[in-house]
Amino acid sequence: MMLHIPNVLTAAEVARCRTVMEQADWTDGRVTAGHQSVQVKKNLQLPEGGAAARELGELVLAGLERTPLFISAALPQRVFPPLFNRYDTSMSFGSHVDGAIRFLPGTGQRVRTDVSATLFLSEPDSYDGGELVVEDTYGHHAVKLPAGDLILYPSTSLHHVTPVTRGARLASFFWIQSMVRDVSQRALLFDLDTAIMQLNQEVPKSPSLVMLTGVYHNLLRQWAEP
Ligand code: NI
Predict the structure, then answer these.
(1) Which end of the chain is flanked by fewer CB atoms within 10 Å, N or C?
(2) Which residues pair with 142 in a beta bridge?
(3) Ligand 1 centroid vs 97 CA: distance in angstroms?
């Protein structure tokens, strides 16, 4: 499931991200790449665990916490500390699958990557190219969102970032270990939750809503590894 989640960050928060990123020191993006993706990755990153990434990471995590659509879709158990990248003109990231397990720096803790996330931080008209393209059995899906918006996509999918041909593309990227590991179970829960929310608007007094909400929680109880 791919899902566009608008307005995870406010305009002021996006501006803060861009200010910090403009003044920051950058490293080669290959530092966090695995054996296969290191061969096709050409971009820059804020140093993992550095002051800039930590400050902006807190901003992103706070944005996620106040976004019900993110919680409903990802059912997060653990979120990897957000990383930040920059693609200047001629930079790109060829086709790859994200590594299955990421280590939380300095803790020895592991995060299984169930859901991948890209939070766009540059306005789409400020650069050309730089689309995130996710490949699945339905074809290729090119994504380029307004600054502050997030795309979620399954970490199991092949994806790439097309070359930037003008300007620079700033983004945050991270992974989520979901309480519900199975993508089809997670999608069912999301559909059910979405339908319950809509019924809450349309027929708020319906006794069936109580039962449906019970079904949601009882499925979650069966499937979740909290
Ligand atoms: Ni990737």
Answers:
(1) C
(2) 133
(3) 6
Ligand 1 mean position to 49 CA, how many Å? 19
| pLDDT tens column, 24-40 | 999 999 988 888 888 89
DSSP state of 127: -
Q: How far is the CA of 212 from the centre of ligand 1 (A)?
A: 36
CA distances from 14 to 45, 48, 56, 119, 122 (A): 17, 19, 10, 10, 8
What was the pLDDT predicted at 181?
A: 96
The token pair at 92 is: 């790109």
Read off the tokens for 102. 């990421």
Amino acid 4: pLDDT: 98
Q: Could you tell me the CA-to-CA distances from 26 to 20, 86, 147, 188 in Å, in that order? A: 11, 9, 20, 40
Neighbours of ion ligand 1 (CB under 5 A): 98
Distance 118 CA to ligand 1 centre (A): 9
User: How much distance in Å is there from the Cα of 203 to the middle of ligand 1?
Assistant: 42
Q: What is residue 204's three-state secondary structure?
A: coil
